[in-house]
Amino acid sequence: MSRSEPNRAAEMETFVRVVERGDFSAAARELRQSPSAISKLVARLEARLGAQLMTRTTRRLQLTAEGEAFYERATRILADLDEAEREAAGGAAPRGRVRVNCSVSFGQMYVLPLVPAFLARFPEVTLDIVLTDQVVDLVEQRADVAIRIGPLASSRLVARKLGQSRMAVVASPEHLARHGVPRTVEDLERQPRIGFNFTRTVRGWPFLVEGRTVTVSPNGPVQVGDGETSRLLALAGVGLARHALFHIGPDIAAGTLVPVLEELNPGDIEEIHAVFVGRPGRLPARTRAFLDFLAEAAGEMNRSGWTTPP
Questions:
Q1: Are the beta carbons of 193 and 241 closer than 8 angstroms?
Q2: Rounded to whole angstroms, how far apart are CA atoms 175 and 152?
Q3: Average pLDDT, the chain
Q4: 164 touches 308 (CB < 8 A)
Q5: Does residue 1 register a pLDDT over 50?
Q6: Phi/psi of residue 98, nearest 5 degrees
Q7: Burial category of 217 from C-beta neighbours within 10 Å (exposed 0-12, middle 13-18, buried 19 and up)
Q8: Residues 183 and 251 placed together within one structural domain of the fold
Q9: Are 139 and 183 members of one domain?
């Protein structure tokens, strides 16, 4: 490569560090360069590409649409380079950071317990886990893998099904002692119901009444931001709640939550997927290792009886 030719791998590495660290100074410290040198390199990269990759303010950096696309491709290319070098050197063990986004309930019950065994098998991999029931943009949040519960919106994400779980409406024995056991949909509508304060694909609770689907609004005295909070409030006797059996199955088995109106349950299910950006054959080794480990563990989840295999 002549002196006038750009070192595109170095440009990508610098750009990715700036994005991931959030400012030029932090990236400069990590790369042992001055902030002005990093800023000039990114400016030269933008000039060569003929596109603005990020907007700069005194407080933060914000990627443009072109910057998002370039960041996504650059991280994959750099991961491929790392993997190619490891394989050539005879050491192809997965290494690096895997960013995982997961719902609170599924994460606490199934993902977090897997962490010790995963890290023991892949000691050079670092996990960065965020638990939230909000559906996030993987590119915007720079997540490698997200575990989604429920219907998947059409997108450019690739999905790997882990299992599925039937839904049920439940309440605590204390709640039912105070309010009575609902025998009809009308009975249920007169009792407090715990809902969610974020947009969901299925907005109401469906019941099958005389061959037709009747939907009950979950808008009650309490609205929450995640399924685990809803479950805890149901256990405390605050109201009725509707969850997948993977989440509340152990509570039902222990008698701390009781299913109601099961004879009207339409049998709808929530599917559980791991989703990611990119083609399965082109994933970094660290991401592929996590996905394979998760799919392997899903077999144990399915054998628990609260989920069913894909």
A1: yes
A2: 34
A3: 85
A4: yes
A5: no
A6: -115, 120
A7: exposed
A8: yes
A9: no
CB 147 within 8 A of CB 295: no
Tokens 């909000």 map to which residue?
134
Residue 265 forms part of a structural domain: yes
pLDDT tens figures, 186-216: 999 999 999 988 766 567 899 999 999 999 9
- Does 290 reside within a domain? yes
Residue 310 counted as domain residue: no
- Looking at the fold, whether 181 and 138 belong to one and the same domain comes out as no
Task: Name which of 31, 28, 25 is nearest 60 in CA terms.
Answer: 25
* Domain of 15, in residue numbers: 8-88
Q: Which of 69, 88, 107 is the last residue of a domain?
A: 88
Same domain, 72 and 113: no
Which of the listed residues 35, 63, 88 is the one where a domain comes to its end?
88
What are the Cα distances from residue 112, in Å, to 107, 132, 165, 285?
6, 13, 19, 21
User: Looking at the domain assignment, is residue 206 inside a domain?
Assistant: yes
Q: Is residue 182 within 8 Å of 188, Cβ to Cβ?
A: yes
- Which residues sit opposite 100 in a β-bridge? 129, 145
pLDDT in tens, 232-252: 999 999 999 999 998 999 999
Contact 92, 283 (CB under 8 A): no
Q: What DSSP assignment string belongs to 284-295?
A: -HHHHHHHHHHH
Write b or e for each residue in 282-310: b if 16 or more Cβ atoms lie within 10 A of its Cβ, otherwise e.
Answer: ebbbbbbbbbebbeebbeebbeeebbeee
